[in-house]
Amino acid sequence: MQLILDLDRLGERPLQVQIYEAVRQMILAGSLAAGQKLPSSRSLAEQINVARNTVSHAYERLASEDYIAAKARSGIFVNDRLPETAVLVRNTGAATIETGKRIRLGANPSFTGRAPKLWSERALRPKFDFFVGRPHPSSFPSNFWRRSIARNLQIAHQAQTEYGDPRGIPGLRSTIAAHLRDTRGIDAGAEQIVITSGIQGALNLLARIFLSGRMQPSVAVENPCYQGAAFLFNSYGARLKPIDVDEFGAVVSQLEDFSGNLVYVTPSHQFPTGYTMSLDRRLHLLDWAYRTGSYVIEDDYDSDFRYDGLPLTALAGLDRRGAVIYLGTFSKSIGAGLRLGYAVLPRHLLDQADIVKTLLDNGSPWLEQMVVAEFLKEGAFTRHLRRLRRSYMASRNALVDTIARHFPGSTVSGKECGMHVMWMLPPDLPAAADIHAVALSCDVGLYPLAMAGALEQGNLKRFSDRSLVVGYTALSGTEIETALNRVSRKLNGTD
């Protein structure tokens, strides 16, 4: 038989691939019917003027995918039983399911949930982007990383090809334990530390331990709070109890009528307001946890960057009864792309955490853990943080000064530490959503709470309508001045 194949002999795609695809498409379209005989490889090669091996390779691929089959002393035929993909393609649109009838292919997924939008296409980012939680791209310790990766690959042996401890490599857990003792006042052993995929991985670990299988569990969260935590707890069926935030942190007295036993807080630099929880509130929170037998999840957000005054001891550093679960991450200090964080757990939760961590992911990548362990152990991490604090403080100062000059009457909270501030707009400026739109027209990214990964609950929103969450660490002082000057001129009609 004759096969009419349209081949592009001058194109980049190999002829054997073109032959394979052309014959396959004829089979899928039905122009080559099941059981129909095909020309031999020699015959087809002569017909289309190509080498016989070229046709043979195409036929071999079609045979390996069950589109054709060779029969002894008879020839090559289109398979009587076409692959499932062929049946699906040929039947697409050929028939419709009657109204009200369904074909059940399996149990319907039961998961429901929302996800924060922390990632965006690079091409869509404004030139001057104040999105929260982004270290400056030039701050990544590339030279150390290259040297450490090369060194560790030489000694990797089976470490890269075998499963390791799901809780993390001992070297990294030990260096984290030492770092926390020196900087956060937390006296925990390496065995209490579990390496996770950032804060979100740690929250998933805890949600599995505390919320899975419970009927209508409850979690208390700050209001406003981090979307990633709130949405995660919701996805496990938890009801959220919002706790207001003021300049002293979460209003702990509002927990007195809370019936659940789990509360999530960011006491070092509350997200998104930037307030620091006072010592009085910290002690009150611990007292509540002890009296009620509850647990406190301490997300030590932005604690590495404090510019004014001495940092308070972490909540976990004050805890003496195993009521606080401490979460930390390298996303803000090194980079979110690293995807390494950790949880410090009370000893009585370690067996459960070990099982859950194994079920979740069987452990974090070995090479990245080894590099971070060296980064901490050699003192390079401390020097790295020192450099970042100087750079970020300069950007913080530029931001606060520029807001004061161009937008008088504004209030800025959270400037004492961290990587962002919350900018509360004066009465003469438009609402936060309108400022976002104006800024975007100037190629500047300024974000209301909901667009910056924050969630405020309740009908009376104290911050959402009139506040912006402004990250400043990925921009220089000059860039900050240029960007906000553009927005100011646009608002004043002088642009």
Could you please describe the fold and organization of this structure?
The N and C termini lie far apart (74 Å). The protein is of the alpha/beta class and 495 residues long. The chain has helices at 15-29, 41-48, 52-64, 84-91, 142-154, 170-183, 198-210, 227-235, 279-292, 315-318, 350-360, 366-377, 380-406, 432-441, 477-492; strands at 37-38, 68-71, 75-78, 128-129, 193-196, 218-223, 225-226, 239-246, 249-250, 262-265, 295-299, 324-329, 341-344, 411-413, 420-424, 444-445, 447-448, 454-455, 467-471. α2 (41-48) packs across α3, α7 (198-210) runs parallel beside α8 (227-235) and α7 crosses α11 (350-360). The chain is globular, with a radius of gyration of 30 Å.
Summarize the structure.
With 495 residues, the chain is α/β, with parallel strands linked by helices. It has 15 helices and 19 strands. The longest helix has 27 residues, at 380-406.
Mean of pLDDT: 89
User: Largest sheet, if any?
Assistant: 8 strands, mixed
Query: Which stretches of 5+ consecutive residues score pLDDT under 50?
Result: 89-97
Strand content: 5-15%
**Which shape, going by the Cα principal axes?**
globular
The total of beta strands comes to: 19
Widest sheet, order of strands = 5-13-12-11-10-6-8-9
Alpha plus pi helix count: 15
Backbone structural class = alpha/beta
Distance between the termini: 74 Å
Fraction of helical residues:
25-40%
Q: What is Rg?
A: 30 Å
